[in-house]
């Protein structure tokens, strides 16, 4: 699993350094950037980042500009904005774009640390959820077309006999497919299977749409 | 009436010397006057050649002229009346001015003087002598003067100017109808100078107007020219522009008569005042905008280092946790540093908020805690300036609804001013801060110093923006304080200022219940 990296972006050297040192007291790795464009250029950092502490007004690309770019690139990264201005319209815009929080400089550093920790936990949970989804999807994808049809019948609560009739195959064949489905999806009961596939949003329709 | 043939004067050289009567005639003729000598009993009248010459007649023609028929019809009655009055003794001297017909058909103004020099036993006049003098030239001048005066009046009144003519000794003042209409004076009731001056002058303008007139009356200024407010009949005041000049002085130079104009400049004055006020407001707004920009820039520039100070303090505080109890003496002052960084940040935000007319963030505040915190905060300044603070807060002060930070700002500003006021004080420097409950349920705070009192430059309006006596001041401290206090529903004022010290007071509405 990736390290939960925190990226600090501020054009003011003292602010940047002080925030980095502060967040490091949480035991989190911190990488600091003097400009928003530097962040965009560092793919490795973006991949590992669990939280972005971002100044709103910077020369070049602004904090809000970076937020928009990242959003378009599909990086749903929690962003904590910090600003020495704190204009209401700017705050509103950042929050509407999905900012994790907005702190006005100077702030109580404990508040920043609390929010950074929450953001990192949030990002980790998000990442974990994304990983679990990918795993289940991979299991579902490993089913053959026939097995997938049988699973659709199982999830719909049909009896083996009904499934066999619907697919024009023997009950015995259905039972074999059924066992393969349980094995491939690594579940021990029908209830577990239903919870799993419904939990990732699978349905007979979505299967058919594939 | 038979008229003696006039004789030529002077007599031929070498002839016998003239008798007394002739000597007088000669003298009078030489003075340019025509002479007549009328013997009423005989009806005989002597006329000197000049008598007729001034009317264009030859000496021959002169004898035959009938005086009464030469009189201008408009002047005849008056001239004859005066003549009769003298002949009958009701007046000692005959004096008249009339026009006589000249040979060319024009009239000339003649001044006649005469006297009955012989009377009969019954007092009846026997001989009447006198002179004629041509005064046409003087009359023309008078007429020209009248014309020019009419013109002058016309010109003045064309501009809407009213006239006044003031006999300074008598006190009477003649005013033109338009003057009466300016102040709404009805009828033709005579007006005394005092009725207008100073009776109707606005008290605020009196001293200035008097000074202008006085300067002119004493001859220091060539003309009196001043604008002031005059009270109208309906009690309102109107701005008028008055110009005047002394027209007559006595031998000692004392002014006897003064005349001049009054112009109603009320509307113009109001317009000018309005423009001036608008210009001032614009300038003020401009400065506020400028201050706003300055505050925004400052807020950003200051908040960055304040953030760094707060963060670095936080870093050190957290690292000290690893050191253990040894670090305790360092931890507390460090926490103060961190606290002050946030406080400074708050002040920056509030000042900017104030400039943007932001509303204060109010909460119930205990005055005592504000005073304590500000005094503690200012202790370094107080100590450095050797100022002793005496705090005297009444028991049981109610809390006030206020913005804690703004309240601190006000108090800190007043304390700062008090410290500066005592910078040169040789005596013990004592700063008193008192608080008590006012009559109307307000809390009254007072900050007193023992300094030399407000400087003249700011005494008139200590709260005017951009007025300062401090070399590095911008003159916004007191105006900001007053705005803050007023935003809280209170008042800020100078309670007292003398060479023994100054006291600033402000009120804050107490929290009900």
UniProtKB/TrEMBL annotation, chain A:
Q: Which InterPro entries match?
A: CheY-like_superfamily, Sig_transdc_resp-reg_C-effctor, Sig_transdc_resp-reg_receiver, Tscrpt_reg_LuxR_C, WH-like_DNA-bd_sf
Q: Which PROSITE patterns match?
A: HTH_LUXR_1, HTH_LUXR_2, RESPONSE_REGULATORY
- Modification 4-aspartylphosphate occurs at: 55
Stored Gene3D superfamilies: 3.40.50.2300, Winged helix-like DNA-binding domain superfamily/Winged helix DNA-binding domain (1.10.10.10)
**Keyword vocabulary terms for this entry:** DNA-binding, Phosphoprotein, Transcription, Transcription regulation
- In which domain of life is the source organism classified? Bacteria
HTH luxR-type domain ranges (all copies)? 136-201
Response regulatory domain segment(s)? 5-120
Q: Name one GO biological process term.
A: phosphorelay signal transduction system
User: What is the protein's given name?
Assistant: DNA-binding response regulator
Taxonomic placement: Bacteria, Pseudomonadati, Pseudomonadota, Betaproteobacteria, Rhodocyclales
From TrEMBL, chain B:
Give the start-end ranges of region Disordered. Answer: 1-21
What's its catalytic activity?
Answer: ATP + protein L-histidine = ADP + protein N-phospho-L-histidine
PAC domain segment(s): 94-147, 224-277
Source taxon at top rank: Bacteria
Q: Which UniProt keywords apply?
A: Kinase, Phosphoprotein, Transferase
The top EC class, named as a word, is: transferase
Q: What is its EC number?
A: 2.7.13.3
Which Pfam families does this entry report, sorted A to Z?
A: HATPase_c, HisKA, PAS_3
This one is known as histidine kinase
């Amino acid at each position: 699993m990736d390290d939960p990296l925190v990226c600090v972006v501020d054009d003011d050297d003292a602010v940047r350094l002080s925030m980095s040192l502060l967040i490091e007291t949480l035991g989190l790795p911190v990488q600091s950037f003097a400009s928003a464009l530097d962040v965009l250029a560092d793919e490795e950092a973006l991949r590992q980042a669990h939280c972005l502490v971002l100044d709103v007004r910077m020369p070049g690309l602004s904090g809000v500009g970076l937020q928009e770019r990242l959003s378009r690139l599909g990086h749903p990264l929690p962003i904590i904005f910090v600003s020495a201005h704190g204009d209401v319209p700017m705050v509103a815009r950042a929050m509407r774009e999905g900012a994790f929080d907005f702190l006005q400089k100077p702030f109580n550093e404990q508040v920043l640390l609390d929010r950074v920790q929450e953001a990192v936990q949030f990002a980790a949970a998000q990442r974990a959820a994304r990983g679990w989804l990918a795993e289940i999807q991979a299991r579902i994808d490993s089913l053959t077309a026939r097995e997938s049809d049988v699973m659709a019948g199982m999830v719909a609560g049909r009896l083996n006999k009904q499934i066999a009739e619907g697919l024009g195959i023997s009950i015995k064949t259905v039972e074999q497919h059924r066992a393969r489905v349980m094995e491939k999806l690594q579940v021990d009961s029908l209830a577990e299977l239903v919870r799993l596939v419904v939990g990732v949003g699978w349905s007979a329709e979505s299967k058919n749409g594939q | 009436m038979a008229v003696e043939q006039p004789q030529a004067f002077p007599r031929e050289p070498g002839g016998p010397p003239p008798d007394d009567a002739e000597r007088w005639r000669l003298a009078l003729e030489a003075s340019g006057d025509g002479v007549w000598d009328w013997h009423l009993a005989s009806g005989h009248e002597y006329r000197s050649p000049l008598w007729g010459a001034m009317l264009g007649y030859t000496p021959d023609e002169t004898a035959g002229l009938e005086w009464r028929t030469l009189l201008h019809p408009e002047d005849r009655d008056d001239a004859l009346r005066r003549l009769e009055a003298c002949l009958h003794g009701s007046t000692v001297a005959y004096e008249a001015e009339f026009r006589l017909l000249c040979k060319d058909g024009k009239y000339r103004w003649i001044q006649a003087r005469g006297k009955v020099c012989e009377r009969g036993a019954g007092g009846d006049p026997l001989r009447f002598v006198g002179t004629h003098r041509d005064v046409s030239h003087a009359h023309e001048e008078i007429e020209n003067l009248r014309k020019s005066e009419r013109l002058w009046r016309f010109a003045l009144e064309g501009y809407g100017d009213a006239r006044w003519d003031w006999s300074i000794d008598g006190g009477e003042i003649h005013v033109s109808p338009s003057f009466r209409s300016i102040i709404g004076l009805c009828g033709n009731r005579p007006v005394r100078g005092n009725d207008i001056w100073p009776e109707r002058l606005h008290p605020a303008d009196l001293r200035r107007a008097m000074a202008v007139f006085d300067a002119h009356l004493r001859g220091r200024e060539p003309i009196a020219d001043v604008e002031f407010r005059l009270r109208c009949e309906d009690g309102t005041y109107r701005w008028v522009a008055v110009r005047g000049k002394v027209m007559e002085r006595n031998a000692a130079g004392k002014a006897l008569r003064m005349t001049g104009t009054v112009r109603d400049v009320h509307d113009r004055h109001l317009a000018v005042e309005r423009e001036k006020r608008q210009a001032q407001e614009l300038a003020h707004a401009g400065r506020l905008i400028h201050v706003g920009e300055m505050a925004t820039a400052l807020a950003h520039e200051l908040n960055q280092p304040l953030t760094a100070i707060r963060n670095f303090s936080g870093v050190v505080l957290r690292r000290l946790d690893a050191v253990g109890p040894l670090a305790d003496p360092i931890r507390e002052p460090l926490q103060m540093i961190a606290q002050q960084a946030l406080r400074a940040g708050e002040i920056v935000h509030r000042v900017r908020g104030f400039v943007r007319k932001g509303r204060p963030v109010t909460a119930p505040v205990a005055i005592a805690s504000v005073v304590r915190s500000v005094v503690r905060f200012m202790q370094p300044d107080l100590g450095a300036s050797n100022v002793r603070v005496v705090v005297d807060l009444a028991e049981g002060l109610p809390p006030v609804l206020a913005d804690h930070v703004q309240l601190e700002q006000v108090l800190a500003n007043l304390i700062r001013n008090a410290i500066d006021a005592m910078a040169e004080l040789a005596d013990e420097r004592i700063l008193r801060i008192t608080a008590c409950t006012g009559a109307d349920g307000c809390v009254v705070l007072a900050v007193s110093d023992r300094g030399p009192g407000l400087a003249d430059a700011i005494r008139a309006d200590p709260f005017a923006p951009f007025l300062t006596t401090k070399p590095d001041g911008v003159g916004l401290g007191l105006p900001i304080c007053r705005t803050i206090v007023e935003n809280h529903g209170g008042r800020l004022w100078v309670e007292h200022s003398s060479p023994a010290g100054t006291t600033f007071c402000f009120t804050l509405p107490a929290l009900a219940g």
